[in-house]
Amino acid sequence: MIVKRVAGRAESLCWRLGASFTVLVLLVTALLTGTAVRTAATVSLNAQKDSAKSSVIGITTAFADSLLHTNQNPAQLAEQLGLSAGGRVIWLGPDGIVRVDGGGNSGLNGTLLSLHEEMLNAHEPKAQIYNTGNDWVVYAISPLKADKLSEGYILLIRDLKAIRQELSELKKRLWITGAILASAFTLLGSLLAKSISKPIQLLTRAVQGMQAGKLKQSVPIEGSSEITSLSNAFNNMAAQVAELDEQRSAFVANAAHELRTPLAALKAMVEGMEYENGLTAGFIRQIDRLSHLVNSLLTLTRLDNSKLELNMGTLPVKGLLDEALWTMKPLLLKRKLVLNIEEETWIYGDPDWLHQALVNVLDNAIRYTPNDKEIYLDVKNIDDFVHIIIEDTGKGVEPDMLPYLGDRFFRISASRDRKSGGSGLGLSIVSEIVSLHNGFVTFDSPPDRGLKVDIALPKAHPENLTIS
């Protein structure tokens, strides 16, 4: 099923460019945040390791002096030194068994403290960072000697929870900064994209207008040099196309007007001649065909006129159909008309032009429907449109031909050819008229069926109904 309708919506360049800037800034923020946090963590942990190593050396010296020269309680000394060093001081024997716990946990005394072998066998001060899962802890150990005799080790333990909190705050601040930058760049990108997309959108609308048949288009010259060059080129092209179209329309109109008079005179002369072997009747048929073609060309010329004014009003669909069927009644006598109208419906349009559209479709259906065969006429209400569907019972149309129905002078060969007497303009006139009423025409030809023409016209709004 092919619908002759120009529709569509272009993606927003502003949104895409703004979103691209946002994603880019967020990716850069994530990369920089990760790098900054890792770098800060490395620097902070190394500083804490060096600090703990220096502290444990001082604590070891103080412990050695106390063992040699004072009688101070080792537990009290360990507690005091731990407070001043910001950690927990433990005195280990050479075998790794706890002698004194400066943290006040006497229950730990006499137990073997589980440490890495490299820490217990340290011959010089060492410090190591350990990750407990939630926090970091620094262990610093130094051999303890009193009067050149080994008295074990001094172990300093510091909780580095504050560092993890500081890094968390740093990460938070960086993400907030990144979000602010992302918002700023999104706004900047949107403004930049708007300055680029606005002239492009104007060009797009102008091109769509030309596709719809409104050839007099012009776009403002603004934007970058490339855009202004493109706008200039388009305006020049549109002006030339519009001028050529006006010349074409004027030529067709003038030619059609010039042909009508001699055709009428020729027909009168032929009708006054004596019939001879059917030749006169053939002349008259050909003159009628030419007259019909000329009238169709004049109709299309009027429809092409941008200054065409429609006599719009609220119209009952049934009344429009009754008038069209009355007009075609002599030709319908040998066909069977099957009517199906769901309910009375109203549309808003020009009665004369809509009458011509309906007559053209009915004429097309009659032309291709054999005698004593059916022509179906249905009226359906679907959403905001009234669908007038006319279907003949001829030989139908090939699917690959459907997209071209409604094009000017398009004709279908084989079963629906010139023998029908058509000019190839009837359905194009229908499409033009329906388009002027903000409707659309659909062509369909199911297998083993004739041609179905669906004319969709907008319903009249309730406020426009003026039923007398």
Description:
The structure is a single chain. By secondary structure, this protein is α+β, with helices and mostly antiparallel strands. It folds into three domains: 15-166, PAS domain (Beta-Lactamase, 2-Layer Sandwich), CATH 3.30.450; 225-304, Signal transduction histidine kinase, dimerisation/phosphotransfer (DHp) domain (Helix Hairpins), CATH 1.10.287; 313-464, 2-Layer Sandwich (Heat Shock Protein 90), CATH 3.30.565.10. It is built from ten helices and 13 strands. It has helices at 13-69, 74-85, 117-120, 161-211, 225-271, 279-304, 317-327, 329-332, 351-368, 426-436; strands at 2-3, 88-92, 98-101, 126-131, 136-146, 149-159, 313-316, 336-341, 346-349, 374-382, 385-391, 440-444, 452-458. Strands 1-12-13-11-10-8 form a six-stranded mixed beta sheet. A five-stranded antiparallel beta sheet has the order 3-2-6-5-4. The protein has a two-stranded antiparallel sheet with strand order 7-9. β12 and β13 (452-458) form a beta hairpin. α1 packs antiparallel against α2 (74-85), α6 (279-304) runs parallel beside α10 and α9 runs antiparallel to α10. The longest helix is centred in the first third of the chain and has 57 residues, at 13-69. It is rod-shaped, with a radius of gyration of 47 Å.
In brief:
This protein has three domains: 15-166, Beta-Lactamase (2-Layer Sandwich), CATH 3.30.450; 225-304, Helix Hairpins, CATH 1.10.287.130; 313-464, Histidine kinase-like ATPase, C-terminal domain (Heat Shock Protein 90), CATH 3.30.565.10. Helices cover 51% and strands 17% of the residues. It has helices spanning 13-69, 74-85, 117-120, 161-211, 225-271, 279-304, 317-327, 329-332, 351-368, 426-436; strands at 2-3, 88-92, 98-101, 126-131, 136-146, 149-159, 313-316, 336-341, 346-349, 374-382, 385-391, 440-444, 452-458.
